[in-house]
Design a protein that fits this description.
eleven-stranded parallel beta sheet, alpha/beta, 351 residues
Length: 351
């Protein structure tokens, strides 16, 4: 379905330089965009590619608009082209996605005490346990499991095969992708005589509004208190959140991040892929941890933190590893040498 550029400006803002009656049907990459597509330039390094794009219109910043002379199509000038693109992309996807019919699929197993709002959609082979609540517009795709007394908020979407365990809560407009497990037991054991005794995990998982959870991500239920994911958090695929953690509002984590139990993370933090966060520590608001960084201790001040050793040829890495391993001994030798030099200096002064 085609949309006028003028209508897109009315919806998403920006300044249009071109014909508002021109129609477009999709957003496409700069090198593949055609006469019915919108392209977007959010990285100034791609100006040369944008200049030769065949897109009907280009979304770009004021700075790029001033520098991009050769491009002949319409222009949508906005302070944040990437955010404009994201909202427009959602709009085009919604146009071509048929709405799901509300109701419960005949193969779904819904306990009589569960509350399913008439506008909710429950797909094939879904299990909804006793006392669970699916609020208005909730979408539960095929093969999901909704545990006892769990609550799924308004217009929250569970993709196929999500497990949402007993008494867990998620707010409105959430997105949980396939394979995610919310509310499994945390890793809690006591040791006695060389054997491990399981500690019951009696807390829950409480998730706020507008939270995205990626495929095969796991969020453990609390041991006593709840595990809490605040509003606007975005979790990528294959992330592990341990029991009793609290993740602050609008914090974002890339794939394969691991957060050990009882850690408190502030608001508006970012974590690069494969970052590892130790348990029982606190991380302040506006902390940005780069990829593959290990965080062993609390970070009490905002800022950017990095803690990894860059890759190199194996032989070079082995030599550097030997040096690192011997740093403690080298430090002691240097201290002893410094002490000897100071003593010699004192002797000469006293002569």
């Amino acid at each position: 379905m085609a949309t006028r550029l003028g209508e897109l400006i009315e919806r998403f803002g920006g300044q249009l330089r071109g014909n508002p009656d021109s129609e477009v049907v999709a957003i496409a990459p700069l090198d593949r965009a055609g006469s019915a597509d919108i392209g977007f330039l959010s990285n100034s390094k791609l100006r040369a590619l944008a200049a030769h794009s065949h897109a009907a219109a280009l979304v770009l910043s004021p700075a790029d608009d001033a520098e991009l002379i050769a491009y002949a199509g319409a222009r949508i000038v906005t302070a944040n082209p990437y955010a404009w693109f994201a909202r427009a992309a959602q709009y085009f996807v919604a146009l071509r996605t048929p709405p799901l019919e509300p109701g419960v699929h005949p193969t779904a197993a819904v306990h009589p005490s569960a509350q399913v709002h008439p506008t909710a959609h429950v797909g094939a082979h879904v299990t909804v346990e006793a006392g669970a609540v699916l609020k208005a517009g909730a979408v539960i795709d095929a093969g999901c499991y909704i545990g006892r007394a769990a609550v799924v908020g308004e217009h929250t979407h569970f993709f196929a095969n999500v497990s949402f365990h007993a008494e867990c809560i998620i707010g409105a407009r959430g997105i949980v992708h396939s394979g995610a497990v919310i509310g499994g037991d945390g890793f809690g054991f006591a040791v006695e005589g060389g054997t491990y005794i399981k500690i019951p995990q009696t807390g829950s998982v409480v998730i706020g509004d507008d939270v995205d959870i990626g495929s095969n991500t796991t969020i453990d239920r609390g041991a006593l208190d709840d595990t809490v994911i605040e509003n606007g958090v975005k979790l990528d695929n294959l992330i592990q959140i341990g029991h009793n953690c609290r993740i602050g509002a609008h914090t974002v984590m890339a794939g394969c991040v691991g957060v050990a139990g009882s850690t408190r993370i502030g608001k508006h933090c970012t974590f690069g892929g494969a970052a590892m966060i130790n348990g029982h520590i606190e991380i302040a608001d506006n902390v940005h941890v780069t990829a593959a960084t290990m965080v062993p201790n609390s970070l009490t001040e905002p800022g950017r933190y990095t803690g990894y050793f860059p890759v190199g040829r194996n032989a070079e890495w082995e030599r550097n590893a030997v040096l690192v391993r011997n740093l403690s001994g080298m430090r002691e030798k240097l201290r002893a040498l410094d002490k000897a030099v100071k003593a010699l200096h004192m002797e000469r002064q006293n002569e």
